Prior knowledge:
single chain; 190 residues; alpha+beta; two-stranded antiparallel sheet; two-stranded antiparallel ribbon
Amino acid sequence: MMLQKTWCIANPLSSDSVLTANIEYACSRLDCSLIQPNGACFKPNTQLHHASFVMNLYYQANGRHLSSCDFRNSGLVSLTDPSYGNCSFHSGGNIAEQETSGSWCVAKPGTDDDLLQQNINFACNQVDCSATHSGGLCFYPTTLINHASYAMNLYYQTTGRKKSSCDFRKTGLLVTNDPNQLHIYTHKLI
């Protein structure tokens, strides 16, 4: 067993309709005012970012159990704090208990597109990212955060799963559940 703080984020492979359903579900049970216009966590105004914030609220409010971050297999338990700027993703102050059998690296929701592209460029100069090219097994969804997460994870996996290999200037998050489990067409990384 590993004891440490944990957070819940949305899987970058999740569709907007799944993310919207997650937001509606969590916000029907919790105060989601921070993702409203003028709220500290409104920007970036994306479904992925808003879903990650409210999914974490729900996860924290429900005792930080794996089942509280499942969201029909669209949630990922993060070992890295996804907070940025004035937007704080709380971890409840208590240490959460998680059983981990592996780790993966994904891009932090809310990361600027320029940084995501820089992460792709860096990682793909070190590893083969052809799976994210047109016709590749991981081309879909064709979002920058999905392609960055693929490249960052492949780099992390091939460099021995060192925590520092998922830093990417504080834009990488270590997660305890495989983000590839969301879609059956997604290429299994390792």
